[in-house]
Amino acid sequence: MTESADRDTESVASVGRERELTQEESALEAIKAIASGANPTQEAFRLSNEFTDRQTARFWAWLRRLKSRS
After folding, report:
1. Residue 36 to residue 42: CA distance in whole angstroms
2. Contact 26, 32 (CB under 8 A)
3. Distance of alpha carbon 25 from alpha carbon 2, whole angstroms
4. What residues contact 43, with CB distance under 8 A and at least 6 apart?
5. What value does the CA radius of gyration of the chain take, rounded to a whole number of Å?
6. Is residue 8 part of a domain?
7. Residue 40 and residue 46: Cα distance in Å, rounded?
8. Closest Cα partner for 49 from 15, 31, 26, 33?
9. Structural domain includes residue 49
10. CB–CB of 29/21 below 8 Å?
């Protein structure tokens, strides 16, 4: 592969990482990381924090919608 093709492949891969992963994708990524030697506790906390952040954002959005109806 040429150097320019490598850069294109890397930029396409980085664009894919910029989008938010689904819960399943995050879990699979954590499993792969653990299988590769990552700290299981750290990965579990990362997944837990992502879940909590998503649910908190949903809750606040719901409250904002509720308030805007009043």
Report:
1. 14
2. no
3. 31
4. 30, 33, 34
5. 18
6. no
7. 10
8. 26
9. yes
10. yes
Give the DSSP per-residue string, 26-43: HHHHHHHHHHTT--HHHH
* Position 37 in a domain: yes
* Pairwise CA distance, residues 55 & 70, whole Å: 23
Range of the domain at 50: 22-69
Number of domains in the chain: 1
Rounded to whole angstroms, the Cα distance separating 34 from 37 reads 5
* 12 HSE (CA, 13 A, CB side): 6
Which candidate, 30, 50, 26, places its Cα nearest to that of 40? 30
Q: For the segment 6-54, what is each residue's pLDDT rounded down to a tens digit?
A: 444 444 444 455 678 899 999 999 999 999 999 999 999 999 999 999 9
pTM of the model: 0.63
